[in-house]
Amino acid sequence: MKTIAFFNNKGGVGKTTLVYHFTYMLAEKGYRCLAVDLDPQTNLTSMFLDEERLQEIYDTDHLRPTIMDSIKPLNRGTGDVTSAQIQRISDQIGLIPGDLELSLFEDKLSVSWNNCLNRDEAAFRVVSSFYRIIQEAGERFEADFIILDIGPNFGAINRATLIAADYVVVPMAADLFSLQGLKNLGSRLGTWQEEWADRASRNPESTLNLPSGKIEPLGYVVMQHGIKESRPVKSYLKWANRIPLTFHHYVLNEEDPTELSVNDDPYCLALLKHYHSLIPMAMEARKPIFLLKPSDGAIGAHLGAVKSSYDDFSTLTDKIVEKVIADDPGVATSGHLSLF
DSSP alpha helices (H): ranges in 201-294? Predict the structure, then answer.
């Protein structure tokens, strides 16, 4: 079981839509997936669940079956984390819903991060809470992959989420601000890895299950918003071809990286079209764009776009799975995980 976080500190790059489609494509390929919504905006939850199920979860004054329900005893100081309730999306997909109240946990996570330096066991329980919740839930669901959707910031919630991940995928746009954000992201990930390694070495309770804080970058996905008639516009290519050098230098910490184009960079996982015309249909049908059918309105040219999107997401998913197995060959023979 491997945990992959999708993260970019710059918002508006299509991250949640990518997580949603990637999870469904993993399921298409036979993998069991647990999606976890750790963004307080809960957009991933809204994509997976229809209005009726959303109302059942959130329209109550009592405990809600969300990630926050599992954290509340710890946040209140009345106990430790509890098992998360998993919403069944399909036979292959489970979801731990997000919660707007998750932002209330930010301050406690921030204080606890510092208190870990004092060998404070309670602080370690707080900082490792996301990791322990999702690991237990993933094992219970018999997941091959745990997929984490997190918000676009460098706050304490995202820090605790990322140290709980084995890998990180960076969705991004091809523009100036995405490149600037990539520089900040790389340095911050490195800092968090180092700081967590220092803190983990001070853990006073050997039986407490702590994350490794590996946060291995698998690569980046460029969302092709600047497309005209299936051809990238000049401004798009200008910024897109600056991504590899920036990623290798600032995220992979290569001192003198080779200059590559996005088409030649092994860390470029995909150049994904936006598929503007399919999004409204997919939202109405409550399914990924690559599973749309003529009965959903996907006819004529739309049907060709559906096929194209299936191929794009299939290739992306294969590439990510191959990278995970290359990094840890042992996972190919454990559980359900294998190359197709």
Answer: 234-240, 243-246, 279-285
Range(s) of the domain holding residue 316: 2-333
Helical (H) or strand (E) element with 231: strand 231-232
Radius of gyration of the chain (CA): 20
Q: Indicate the DSSP class of residue 116.
A: G
For residue 102, tell me if it sits in a domain: yes
Q: Is residue 338 part of a domain?
A: no
In a domain, residue 315? The reply is yes
Tokens 């997976």 belong to 48
| Alpha-carbon span 107 to 340, nearest angstrom | 44
Provide the sign of the torsion angle of the four alpha carbons 325, 340, 16, 139, taken in this order: negative
Tens digits of residue pLDDT in 166-203: 999 999 999 888 999 999 999 999 999 999 999 999 99
Predicted local confidence at residue 257, as pLDDT: 87
- CATH classification at residue 315: 3.40.50.300
Tokens matching residue 284 = 């109405």
Residue 65 lies in a domain: yes
For the record, the structure tokens of 317 come out as 């998913």
How many domains does the chain fold into? 1
- Biggest CA–CA distance in the chain, Å, is 64
pLDDT tens per residue across span 24-59: 999 999 999 999 999 999 999 999 999 999 999 998
Q: Which helix (H) or strand (E) holds 3?
A: strand 2-6
As a whole number of angstroms, the distance between CA 163 and CA 131 comes to: 8
Q: What is the mean pLDDT of each run of 10 residues along the chain (340 residues)?
A: 94 92 98 98 96 91 88 93 97 98 96 98 98 98 98 97 98 91 93 98 95 96 67 75 95 90 94 87 92 88 90 97 91 52
In whole angstroms, how far apart are CA 252 and each of 168, 190, 196?
12, 9, 18
